TrEMBL record:
GO terms for molecular function: dioxygenase activity. It comes from the Bacteria. Keywords: Dioxygenase, Oxidoreductase. This is Phytanoyl-CoA dioxygenase family protein. Signal peptide: none annotated. Transmembrane segments: none annotated. It comes from Tenggerimyces flavus.
């Protein structure tokens, strides 16, 4: 299957071309099967108190060390830096559960329905760059894959309303097939949905969303002080926690401690 596969780590000129063309990259097998299994168990704990229905839980990094480690994973962070430069934040982290035998999700672009990113400019700017760690094997279609429409972040027209309301198929829909532990990195403007899941095991995916520093966090109103006190300098900085001496987000905004 044709996949925009790239190597972990440095963001190369070819990575940039692939990302600009399709709006996403796939880094295969970033986590070992054991690491992914540890994150899977952590995900189960996060979702333990809710119904077994599709749903997303934020801030898992505050209580689950294996999910905290993914915030600045060395296979992924250089790509985020390559796209955003030296100043960006973790805008949100969502841990998604799709129950066994779950159907397809609705097509959408990421952003804010309160003020759509496409009101800002064309093409839709890169405001939310998402790294999705696949915590289950998704080498075959029908395993709770993500489905993306390549290049759709540049489409001047929306996906037709009837396709969206019927959750219909699209001839250029790309069902991402990748082994456990792979990472999908994608632009907020790419139309995407959750693909169907025919398997017997609930599917969990750990999503990490990076943004310019002035974007408001979406998984928290405030940072958790205990987490900030105990985490690494890089993760502390990625939470957007810094002293604002005079002009917030001005020249005093320190680059990340790479
Ligand atoms: O199925 C998932 O894990 C992600 C769902 C989705 O499309 C989203 O969070 O925007």
């Amino acid at each position: 299957m044709l996949n925009p596969e790239v190597a972990p780590g440095p963001f190369t000129d070819l990575d940039k071309f692939v990302f600009e063309s399709w709006g996403y990259l796939l880094i295969p097998s970033v986590l070992t099967a054991d690491e992914a299994a540890e994150c899977y168990e952590a995900s189960r704990r996060l979702h333990a108190d809710r119904d077994r229905a599709f749903g997303q839980i934020g801030r898992g990094y505050e209580t689950e060390p294996c999910l905290e480690k993914l915030i600045d994973h060395p296979a992924v962070l250089p790509k985020v830096r390559g796209l955003f430069g030296d100043r960006f934040i973790l805008q949100a982290s969502w841990n998604t559960m799709q129950p066994a035998h779950g159907g397809v999700g609705g097509w959408h672009q990421d952003g804010s329905s309160a003020y759509d990113f496409k009101q800002l400019s064309y093409p839709v700017p890169l405001i939310q760059l998402r790294a999705s760690f696949l915590l289950t094997d998704q080498t075959n279609p029908g395993t709770g894959n993500m489905e993306l429409i390549p290049g759709s972040h540049r489409s001047q027209v929306p996906l037709p309303a009837e396709i969206r309301s019927e959750r219909g198929d699209v001839p250029i829909g790309h069902v991402i097939c990748a082994p456990i532990g792979s990472v999908l990195l994608f632009h907020n403007g790419v139309w995407h949905r959750t693909y169907r899941h025919d398997g017997d095991q609930d599917r969990y995916t750990a999503h990490y969303v990076y943004s310019p520093p002035w974007v408001r966090a979406a998984d928290r109103f405030d940072n958790n002080d205990e987490f900030l006190d105990n985490t690494t300098p890089m993760r502390h900085a990625l939470m957007g926690a810094f002293e604002r001496p005079d002009a917030p987000y001005g020249a005093s905004y320190e680059p990340l401690p790479f």
